């Protein structure tokens, strides 16, 4: 029957994606070796896994409280959030959020247009929530590979996914955001990757959480690293950034993607 025929076709494709235990162990060994290289001063430039520091030194300890704003840019939609952290005998986190589209004219435009759009969305959110006259500390989740020199500063290395905004690469994205927000009542205190935000959020439920992973439009992860393992003139933690790690188990589709979309390899894992 047509249904069985279609299932046979799917099964034939999936068969090639079944990796043996030996291949998975090989992937693990090579991946770990590249992570170690990424933490070393001399080997870092040639490491396939770039261990980018985030300057986040710990997960929440339960003493945090206050009202905050957050911006989340990096997927198919842009999100603005208001977060209230309070202590009612135990840590209590309440969130209100609003999604905004990221049309092609924004994701393929220039940097000024992008950050002005972000500022306009924030203004709309604050108007809707009747908080436009209040001043809030603001966190910026920016889901693209950046070299951070401080918790609140980060230079964009490369756009990934479908973003192709001109004039932003090799610049400090927080500075661009602050310029766009200069008329808004918000003070940018932190720039984080979405994986870091995931780990920090999970940390409220379990303080043993030291890993965050995103599997979505792209994939990425972060973890807490011990200082004694880091031989970089930078601070504590890293999120992985894959760029061409040679691994067993690549399929025809993997090789085609790498060949035709090399500049997007930052988001690939194997």
TrEMBL record:
Naturally occurring in which organism (per UniProt): Gopherus evgoodei
Broad class of enzyme this protein falls into: transferase
Pathway in which this enzyme or protein is active: Carbohydrate metabolism; hexose metabolism; Carbohydrate degradation; glycolysis; D-glyceraldehyde 3-phosphate and glycerone phosphate from D-glucose: step 1/4
InterPro entries: ATPase_NBD (IPR043129), Hexokinase (IPR001312), Hexokinase_C (IPR022673), Hexokinase_N (IPR022672)
GO cellular component: cytosol; mitochondrion
Domain Hexokinase N-terminal: 10-204
Keyword terms of this UniProt record: ATP-binding, Glycolysis, Kinase, Nucleotide-binding, Transferase
Similarity field: Belongs to the hexokinase family.
Top-rank taxon, per record: Eukaryota
A Pfam short name: Hexokinase_2
Family matches, as Gene3D superfamilies: 3.30.420.40, 3.40.367.20
Protein known as: Phosphotransferase
Source organism phylogeny: Eukaryota, Metazoa, Chordata, Craniata, Vertebrata
GO molecular function: ATP binding; D-glucose binding; fructokinase activity; glucokinase activity
Positions of the Hexokinase C-terminal domain: 211-231
EC number annotated for this UniProt entry: 2.7.1.-
An annotated GO BP: glycolytic process
Catalytic activity, reaction form: a D-hexose + ATP = a D-hexose 6-phosphate + ADP + H(+); D-glucose + ATP = D-glucose 6-phosphate + ADP + H(+)
Ranges that cross the membrane: none
């Amino acid at each position: 029957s047509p249904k069985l025929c279609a299932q046979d076709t799917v099964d034939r494709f999936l068969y090639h994606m079944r990796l043996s235990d030996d291949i998975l162990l090989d992937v693990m060994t090579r991946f770990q070796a590249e992570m170690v290289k990424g933490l070393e001063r001399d080997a870092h430039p040639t490491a396939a896994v770039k261990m980018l520091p985030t300057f986040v030194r710990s997960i929440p300890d339960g003493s945090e409280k206050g009202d905050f704003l957050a911006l989340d840019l990096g997927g198919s939609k842009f999100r603005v959030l208001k977060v209230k952290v309070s202590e009612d005998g135990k840590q209590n986190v309440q969130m209100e959020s609003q999604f905004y589209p990221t049309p092609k004219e924004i994701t393929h435009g220039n940097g000024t247009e992008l950050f002005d759009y972000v500022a306009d969305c924030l203004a709309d959110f604050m108007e809707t929530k009747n908080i436009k006259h209040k001043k809030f500390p603001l966190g910026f989740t920016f889901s693209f590979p950046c070299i951070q020199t401080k918790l609140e500063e980060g230079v964009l290395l490369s756009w990934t996914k479908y973003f192709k905004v001109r004039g932003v690469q090799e610049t400090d994205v927080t500075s661009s955001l602050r310029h766009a927000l200069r008329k808004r009542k918000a003070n940018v205190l932190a720039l984080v990757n979405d994986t870091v935000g995931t780990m920090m959020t999970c940390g409220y439920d379990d303080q043993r959480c030291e890993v965050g992973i995103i599997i979505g439009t792209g994939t990425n992860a972060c973890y807490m690293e011990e200082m004694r393992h880091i031989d970089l003139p930078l601070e504590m933690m890293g999120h992985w950034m894959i760029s061409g790690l040679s691994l067993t188990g690549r399929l025809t589709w993997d090789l085609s993607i790498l060949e035709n979309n090399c500049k997007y390899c930052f988001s690939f894992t194997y």
